[in-house]
Amino acid sequence: MHRDGWHLTEDIDDFLGRAGPFLRARPDLHTMALTVTETLRTQGAAAYGGRAPLLGYLVESGEVRAAFHRRTPGLLSPTPLTPRQAGALAARLAGPGHVLAGVGAEQHTAAAFAEAWRRATGATPVPRAQRVRLYRLAAPTPPEPPPEGRARAAGARDHGRVVRWCRAFTAEVGEDFPADDAAWPGTRFAAKRFTFWETPDGTPVSLAGATPMTAGHVRVDPVYTPAGLRGRGYAGAVTAAVSRAALAAGARVVVLFADPANPTSTALYQRIGYVPVAEFTVYDFS
To answer: Model-level pTM?
Structure first.
């Protein structure tokens, strides 16, 4: 093992060889790091635009205690850090002159790193208004009463609708999505499996995606129902169906993110068995 301190690398195999056991020990808290690094491992840097990501891990007393990834360009995404660890990371990155667009992490970690980066570089951290809450499935509970219809796996004939609904979802949550459908393979949705809830006549009314299983965990993302079809229980039904399918396939941990400012979605996920784990936020650096 390396000496104590933060270690930077662009080699995904080196990173996973050192930090993989640490990340796999808490797949719920480390869900983003696990899915991003698995994509890099299997598809290479081309999966995120062909530019090598920046990766790093913190060694303390001979053990990895924290890690981060940053796609280029993109936000720095560290695992939970203490203020001391955040300060050491900011100093380690600022020394060689790394430029960061911002940081997205568990809320206390994001705040600590934003302040440390301000001290180290003079950049002004600007918090985004929107936060997300991480949930973990604890006791799967089917919606009661369930809406009419059934879950159906999306197939090749559904690709156009999947792309349209993912585009609509990203527009609602403030994410970018390519205007050209041909750019789909480069989006964060391309590797996911999608499921529709459809009415008895076969009309799709809601959509849920799921990441490939990594380190025994699956993340449900996105969940989308067109505006005119909301409030009928479709989102809860399709989320519960995808969650059950993940468990049946062998997942030990199933997680999802939701907007804590949306009481409808937060109540929905808790009714079907999800419990809060942590809140995440983003700071942009001017």
So the answer is: 0.93
